[in-house]
């Protein structure tokens, strides 16, 4: 007995379906063969009756006599078949077998013949219990006398042949079922064994052994499942590695400002410093505190985005003004590297957005551009309309660029192209999610050594910009 499980279900269902199909085919086939043989006998008898009637051209007159009935037997007699001449009431007058005609025929073929059709009855012959077919037809003799001609033929040989054919069909069906059983076991094993292997490996992965892999050249959906689980394990290992790198990086990022704050705090507490040194220490403490706040806020923003808890305060935003504010905020940092920030936006564009969050995106993009651009270079911010009521805001630099290998991962969380430049590796991941919350998308194009272009595509509002206020003319 097969124990419960998928293998049992597959085998039983497969066998059941094939068994029902075979049973239907064999039943239909055997019924069709039986109908064919029986109809052939019936057709042969009816054809013979028609032929005999055509040759019946002379009149049998006078009183009914055995001689006249014998002539009917001579006209309608048929080999291997008993011919009976009956009255319309079913009383037998004469039979080709010579038996004493002292009985009445009550089978259904006689009333059918009297009714004007060719009667047919299949059943067991009284007395002998032999399987027979009876065919009856009403015959008129020159309009004077009417008789029922009845043929009775044995169906034993045909039934015997049909029985043999049935046994052969059952044998063939059994052989087919045996093959199907073997095939169903093979099919079930081809599905169940890989699944058992996948289940065992999945159990190992659930215990934290992510280096375990599903081995085997599996096909179709099972192969897809194995590939997906292996890919999932690779992603978990990669995520764990990114998490470890992030913890290491953020620990370093937090330690550096905390060390400066602690050092200058202890120094200032000890006293004895002139006002200039005290002012310098306080500025360093303030700067490093702001840096810590920025790191913490970046981590909190990412946590909110991951948990879908970030709420946007949507309003009507002038993109040109927002880009001008971004340039003013980054200007001091760019000036230290003698980097020129240029704005190319002649038109006024309005969109429905959260101004603070969108400004956070542009600040991050421009800050990255400044961080990875050489001295005496330029960073261009531009905005232009796209087909379909969309707006494209582009930040383009001529910095170090990003390699093709890193370009696809640069927007992943915690990923950093150059860890030496500091940061959490969350800036671009947060920026992309904020843009997507606005119904837009963030695209990046870069070539190593030639620079990077980041395009933010946002839907524009259908509202028209308000008319500019007219300048007051002096009186």
How would you describe this structure to a colleague?
It is a single chain. With 475 residues, this protein is of the alpha+beta class. The chain folds into three domains: 6-161, PAS domain (Beta-Lactamase), CATH 3.30.450; 220-307, Signal transduction histidine kinase, dimerisation/phosphotransfer (DHp) domain (Helix Hairpins); 315-459, 2-Layer Sandwich (Heat Shock Protein 90). Helix content is 53%, strand content 17%. It is built from ten helices and twelve strands. A five-stranded antiparallel sheet has the order 2-1-5-4-3. The protein has a five-stranded mixed sheet with strand order 7-9-10-12-11. Strand 3 (119-124) and strand 4 form a beta hairpin. The termini are far apart.
Low-confidence stretches: 59-64, 464-475
Calculate the mean pLDDT score and round it: 81
Specify the CATH architecture of the largest domain: 2-Layer Sandwich
Strand order of the largest sheet: 2-1-5-4-3
Please state the overall shape, judged from the principal axes of the Cα atoms.
Answer: rod-shaped
**Given the helix and strand composition, which structural class is it?**
alpha+beta
What's the level 1 CATH class of the largest domain? Answer: Alpha Beta
Beta-strand content estimate: 15-25%
Q: Find the count of extended strands (DSSP E, 2+ residues).
A: 12
Largest sheet: 5 strands, antiparallel
The value of Rg in angstroms is 50 Å
**Helical content class:** 40-55%
Number of domains: 3
Counted by DSSP, the helix tally is 10
Q: How far apart are the first and last residues' alpha carbons, in Å?
A: 108 Å
CATH topology assignment of the largest domain: Beta-Lactamase
Order of helices and strands: HHEEHEEEHHHEHEEHEEHHEE
CATH superfamily of the largest domain: PAS domain
Main location: membrane
Subcellular location: Cell membrane
Protein name: histidine kinase
Catalytic activity: ATP + protein L-histidine = ADP + protein N-phospho-L-histidine
